[in-house]
Automatic annotation (TrEMBL):
Cross-referenced SUPFAM superfamilies: Pseudouridine synthase (SSF55120)
Keyword Isomerase attached: yes
Pus10-like C-terminal domain sequence ranges: 299-531
Annotated region described as Disordered, given as residue ranges: 232-254
Residues in coiled coil: none
Organism ancestry: Eukaryota, Viridiplantae, Streptophyta, Embryophyta, Tracheophyta
Family, per entry: Belongs to the pseudouridine synthase Pus10 family.
Official protein name in the record: tRNA pseudouridine(55) synthase
Record InterPro entries: PsdUridine_synth_cat_dom_sf (IPR020103), Pus10-like (IPR039894), Pus10-like_C (IPR048741), Pus10_N_euk (IPR048742)
Organism expressing this protein natively: Linum tenue
Gene3D superfamilies given in the database record: 3.30.70.2510, 3.30.70.3190
Molecular functions (GO terms): RNA binding; tRNA pseudouridine(55) synthase activity
Top-level EC class as recorded in UniProt: isomerase
Biased composition (Polar residues): 232-247
């Protein structure tokens, strides 16, 4: 346990509770014991080679809470070195307070390029130095609180250039060659703690402590991402997970992420009379750090109804001219976005209707994807949002069953676009009188297969394909006082072009109402009355 003197030799990762129970004095004593347990000559060699104390500890296999402290007293290090040194050159300052920024520029560690010294350039290119993990954690805490995020947990994502593994291998081989087994270095490079793991050990607990929430080993909806790179990150790079700069290819000479690696082969078993030089060249610049705190998208779903024949489903602008008076997307999204305090939103629906088609009956399933929501709305807030949308003066759109989608709503949405049944009601005109035999013919048709080529009206934006669709059933409702107008109620496979099924689209849809009745048929109005989907 961290409170015991012999804890310096343990390799297990301490729990948050264990870390919290250790006082600052106890941490100092344990860290002091760890430093004293190291071979002084090897430590002096590494320090003189401009390797920071954090990298020295991880090189010797320490993997507990030692990386939480970056400021080591001069007396502690003096007991290891046995002589006075310019301690600030090794990334160590005496009497420093946790979390503050340094005004003195340190020599950049050749192994981690400042990562475990908490030395970096920010997104503006300004050189920043924190005294400890607490200082870096405080920057994370400040960003989250300034952005107004409400969180109940987080995932910590770290990205470092893969070339740092090359640095570890080179220095490990150097130490093996120069000192052999006597220095007590980790037996294999795999037993050394990587820069990435050391940094995660260092900052996880301080972030948890400041935010008063726990980190999660499984992906959380709220993510804190630190990305180190050689070049100044762009805003798009900072928001893209998994991107790193730097090459992990071995090179005979030269500059890998700004740190030249000597071309000698530092194998631990190598016997050579050649002088053993430190394998990493001096560096002058630390890495850039891009810090991003964001929430993964959340989804608010339900069903919408559209009562106007002049409202498109999504924002529709052609040549800088709006088509229609508004859109379902804007009416619903503009109310949901402020409820979640997000950056932006995307609108998704199970299919779509034309601007002149109403969506009635049960409504069409939809989801609003909110990017980087500062809060996940409660049921009460979602209910208020639903009421707000339904109370708008224009009454163009309404929503129902609004809720936070946490399960497989996305899969159901895509399934509903092509696999579910949909019902319609259309006002149809034919060029002759509608006879009783016509009504019987139409009504008797069950699960009728229809071949539809891509309609002429959408051919400019859709692939020219032939699709087979099914008309499950049809019913005819006569219009009082007219022999040529009637209401056609029908249930079809999702994705059926209803307008073309009525008029035939110059023979591109067959059969059609026109071909079945042997006359001209035109559709005057169309309403969607039901979209059959579970889960919405």
């Amino acid at each position: 346990m961290p409170g015991e003197t012999e804890a310096v030799s343990l390799s297990g990762t301490p729990t948050t509770a264990e870390l919290a129970a250790v006082s600052n004095e106890e941490e100092t004593r344990i860290l002091s014991d760890a430093i004293r347990s190291l071979p002084p000559q090897a430590v002096k060699d590494l320090l003189n080679s401009e390797v920071c104390i954090g990298c020295i500890l991880r090189l010797f296999g320490f993997r507990e809470h030692f990386h939480f402290r970056s400021s080591i007293s001069s007396s502690m290090l003096h007991s290891v070195l046995g002589e006075s040194e310019h301690l600030e050159h090794y990334g160590i300052l005496a009497g420093s307070k946790s979390g503050e920024e340094l005004e003195v520029q340190q020599i950049v560690c050749r192994m981690c390029l400042g990562i475990l010294q908490y030395l970096y350039r920010n997104d503006k290119g300004i050189l920043v130095q924190k005294l400890s993990a607490d200082g870096l954690a405080a920057s994370v805490d400040e960003m989250i609180k300034q952005d107004g995020h409400e969180i109940d947990g987080f995932s910590l994502e770290l990205s470092v250039p893969p070339v740092l593994l090359e640095h570890d291998n080179a220095v490990w081989s150097y130490m093996k060659k120069r000192y052999g087994q006597e220095v007590g270095i980790a037996e294999e490079t795999s037993k050394c703690v990587s820069v990435k793991d050391a940094l995660k050990l260092a900052i996880t607990y301080p972030i948890e402590n400041m935010l008063d929430v726990k980190s999660s080993s499984i992906p959380s909806s709220f993510r804190i991402r630190l990305t180190y790179s050689q070049t100044k990150p762009s805003s798009s790079m900072a928001k893209s997970p998994g991107e790193t700069n730097g090459s992990c290819k071995r090179r005979k000479t030269a500059d890998v992420n700004g740190v030249p690696v000597r071309s000698s082969n530092f194998s631990g078993d190598q016997k050579s009379s050649e002088p053993c030089n430190f394998p990493l060249e001096k560096v002058n610049e630390p890495y850039y750090l891009a810090l991003v705190c964001c929430r993964t998208p959340i989804y608010i779903g339900g069903r919408y109804l559209k009562f106007s024949r002049n409202v498109s489903q999504t924002r529709w602008i052609i040549d800088d001219e709006r088509k229609g008076e508004s859109s379902v997307e804007e009416i619903i999204g503009s109310s949901i976005l402020p409820a979640c305090q997000g950056d932006s939103y995307k609108f998704h629906a199970a299919g779509r209707e034309d601007i002149d088609v109403r969506m009635l009956g049960s409504g069409r399933p939809f989801m609003v994807e909110v990017q980087n929501a500062r809060r996940v709305p409660s049921e009460a807030i979602i209910k208020e949002t639903e009421t707000k949308i339904n109370s708008l003066e224009e009454k163009l759109v309404a929503v129902k069953n609004l809720k936070l989608e946490v399960n497989n709503g996305w899969g159901l949405m895509h399934e509903g676009e092509s696999e579910k049944q949909k019902q319609y009601c259309s006002l149809v005109w034919i060029s002759r009188t509608l006879e009783d035999e016509d009504v019987q013919t139409i009504t008797a048709s069950k699960d009728m297969k229809v071949l539809q080529r891509t309609p002429i009206r959408v051919l400019h934006r859709r692939s020219p394909l032939e699709r087979e669709k099914i008309i499950h059933w049809m019913k005819v409702e006569r219009v009082a006082g007219s022999s040529q107008y009637f209401l056609l109620h029908l249930c079809t496979q999702a994705g059926t072009y209803i307008k073309e099924f009525v008029h035939g689209d110059f023979g591109r849809t067959n059969p059609s109402i026109g071909s079945i009745l042997g006359c001209r048929a035109e559709i005057l109005q169309l309403d969607v009355t039901d979209v059959k989907m579970d889960g919405f």
